[in-house]
């Protein structure tokens, strides 16, 4: 195995092309440096330098070997830097789970961008999940952080509220509702309501169902979609109406019109889930970034 110290000696001599100056840079006497270079040449099986009493030059083999030696030393230096960042908690991996209705929000994209810029040595993995399984994956360590709309029941998960997001009605552009400035739940109740599947454990479903109950409006269940994009596609196909977070309006699907709701309490929560009692510099860093992004939005 090549000695890294000898590679550094070789690189310094190659840069100086003078054993005396190289020895001064390395804080060595010239004879030990010469011996180390000779030993490296013996290990490699070829000469690195042509030497006369006045000049030092790289051999053809030395010139060919130089970039590889430099690459090895650069990688060692990088490894040392990364090791320091790992020890400080500013490098590593972070798994972030989220529900599809949150991925469209400005808050989500701002937080991801800001975190990636601030921690370029962190491998951020994004995992889209159903609300019902998100809390469990945070609790058992498969996910470090979750962005959800459903309050978990596990004591192993800590919940932080980021506030609420307004809901809007998504209706077919052919519907008479599309021509109104706003719509009410009573008007929507005459149409099939497109939701996530019942077994999905959707926090958005829960908020919508609670809203209908609170206002005493019957909910006429329609077809279901497993992603917010699927729900909007069903609306565009004339299969019903939907209540979606306001950020969904960025999906400018042909055949879909978004209208505000009359009911001022039509909102869905935005929650951050983290493992309870688990200390992590990266988790704390992401929470700080998303908090800053939230302040910008407000």
Keywords:
298 residues, alpha/beta, D-Maltodextrin-Binding Protein, domain 2, 3 domains, seven-stranded mixed sheet
Q: Low-confidence parts lasting 5 or more residues at pLDDT below 50?
A: none
Query: What's the name of the CATH homologous superfamily of the largest domain?
Result: Periplasmic binding protein-like II
User: What is the general shape?
Assistant: elongated
Number of strands: 11
Q: What is the count of structural domains?
A: 3
CATH topology assignment of the largest domain: D-Maltodextrin-Binding Protein, domain 2
Cα gyration radius (Å)? 31 Å
Q: Give average pLDDT, whole number.
A: 88
Task: Note the total helix count.
Answer: 10
The top-level CATH class of the largest domain is Alpha Beta
State the secondary-structure class: alpha/beta
Order of helices and strands: HHHEEHEHEHEEHEHEHEEEH
Q: What summary fits the major beta sheet? A: 7 strands, mixed
**Percent strand:** 15-25%
Tell me the distance between the termini: 58 Å
In CATH, the architecture of the largest domain is 3-Layer(aba) Sandwich
Percentage of residues assigned to helices: 40-55%
Domain HTH lysR-type: 2-59
InterPro entries: LysR_HTH_N (IPR000847), LysR_subst-bd (IPR005119), WH-like_DNA-bd_sf (IPR036388), WH_DNA-bd_sf (IPR036390)
GO molecular function: DNA binding; DNA-binding transcription factor activity
Keywords: DNA-binding, Transcription, Transcription regulation
């Amino acid at each position: 195995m090549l000695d890294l110290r000898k590679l550094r000696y070789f690189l310094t001599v190659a840069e100086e092309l003078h054993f005396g100056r190289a020895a001064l840079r390395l804080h060595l006497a010239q004879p030990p440096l010469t011996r180390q270079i000779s030993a490296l040449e013996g290990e490699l099986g070829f000469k690195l330098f042509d030497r006369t009493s006045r000049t030092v030059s790289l051999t053809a083999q030395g010139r060919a070997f130089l970039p590889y030696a430099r690459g090895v030393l650069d990688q060692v230096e990088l490894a040392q830097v990364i090791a320091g960042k790992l020890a400080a908690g500013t490098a590593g991996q972070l798994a972030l789970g989220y529900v599809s209705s949150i991925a469209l929000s400005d808050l989500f994209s701002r937080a991801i961008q800001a975190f990636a810029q601030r921690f370029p040595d962190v491998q951020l993995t994004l995992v889209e999940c159903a609300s019902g399984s998100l809390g469990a994956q945070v609790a058992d360590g498969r996910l470090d952080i979750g962005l959800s709309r459903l309050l978990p029941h596990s004591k192993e998960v800590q919940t932080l509220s980021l506030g609420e997001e307004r809901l809007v009605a998504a209706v077919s552009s052919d519907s008479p509702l599309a021509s109104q400035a706003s719509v009410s739940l009573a008007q929507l109740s005459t149409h099939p309501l497109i939701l996530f599947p019942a077994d999905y454990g959707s926090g958005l479903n829960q908020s919508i169902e609670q809203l209908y109950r609170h206002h005493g409006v019957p909910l006429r269940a329609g077809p279901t979609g497993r992603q917010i994009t699927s729900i909007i596609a069903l609306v565009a196909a004339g299969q019903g109406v939907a209540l979606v977070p306001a950020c969904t309006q960025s999906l400018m699907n042909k055949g879909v019109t978004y209208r505000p709701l009359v009911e001022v309490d039509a909102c869905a929560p935005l929650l951050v889930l983290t493992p309870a009692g688990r200390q992590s510099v990266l988790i704390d860093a992401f929470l700080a970034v998303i908090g800053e992004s939230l302040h910008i939005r407000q």
